[in-house]
Design a protein that fits this description.
globular, alpha/beta, 42% helix, TIM Barrel, 11 helices, binds 2-phosphoglycolic acid, 8 strands
């Protein structure tokens, strides 16, 4: 089983002005462990990518990503951002977050097209999957996340898949303060891992599977103690430097 370096990503969502984003990045830098022992990725809004990128340039502890990308090459798509525009600004990109799926009708098919566009541009995608409350209650979480994983990655090469991470984010746990139980997160991660293995063989074991949904400094150590969980996608707590850096420290110490 390959050793996977843990990854903690802070999804700032639609928060922070440019000035606030730079201030937040600075506060995170100030509280971050000298050697985090894991990959740390900040996902500010598009409009702050350049400013935050300049601010953290030269700090090898921090990397940058976007929260979304369009599937098409540059062209007539008013208000959208192409993958080719992001490569100058950041390395990572989040694809298929449930807020995108729910608020903007992003289907599995679109998630796949976005993944292809990101990979073609040379970005490192973090693909989010997760079931709804009703699907969870019906005992369908494993089937749902496996299907979303297959739909997103179908047609990718092994090399492409190896550049991706997957974030398991049960919808009912996002922003609710009600994180999934470790056993639920492990079960879903196992379903995702099996789907990846069926497509990519041994390469699947190099792909990091993160958990997201109400991660905070109190529940993070328990999550990272699970060998199946390779990191976290953090929303609310990533806007607070102290808790975010405590989550990073937990990931690094247990990595
Ligand atoms: P949360 O959000 O940590 O605020 O639950 C996680 C996410 O949506 O990525």
């Amino acid at each position: 089983m390959p050793q996977r370096r843990r990854l903690v990503a802070g999804n700032w969502k639609m928060h922070t002005t440019v000035a606030e984003a730079v201030t937040l990045a600075e506060a995170i830098r100030a509280s971050l462990p000298a050697q985090p022992g894991c990959d740390v990725v900040l996902l500010p809004p598009f409009v702050s990518l350049w400013a935050v990128g300049r601010h953290i340039a030269g700090d090898s502890r921090l990397q940058l990503g976007a929260q979304n990308v369009h599937w098409a090459p540059p062209g007539a798509h008013t208000g959208e951002i192409a993958a080719a525009m992001l490569v100058d600004l950041c390395r990572f990109v989040l694809i298929g977050h449930s807020e995108r799926r729910q608020e903007f009708g992003e289907t599995d098919r679109l998630v796949h097209r976005k993944l292809e566009a990101a990979l073609t541009a040379g970005l490192l995608p973090i693909v989010a999957v997760g079931e709804s409350q009703a699907q969870h209650d019906a005992g369908r979480a494993r089937a749902v996340v496996a299907a979303q994983t297959r739909a997103a990655f179908g047609g990718c090469s092994e090399d492409e898949a190896a550049r991706c991470a997957v974030a398991y984010e049960p919808r009912w746990a996002i922003g609710t303060g009600r994180a999934a139980a470790g056993s639920d997160a492990v079960s879903a991660a196992d379903a995702i891992r099996r789907a990846l293995r069926a497509m990519f063989g041994p390469v699947a074991d190099t792909i990091r599977i993160l958990y997201g949904g109400s991660v905070d400094q109190d529940n993070a150590p328990g999550l990272f103690a699970e060998p199946a969980i390779d990191g976290a996608l953090v929303g609310g707590a990533s806007l607070r430097p102290g808790p975010f850096c405590a989550i990073v420290a937990a990931a690094g110490s247990l990595g």
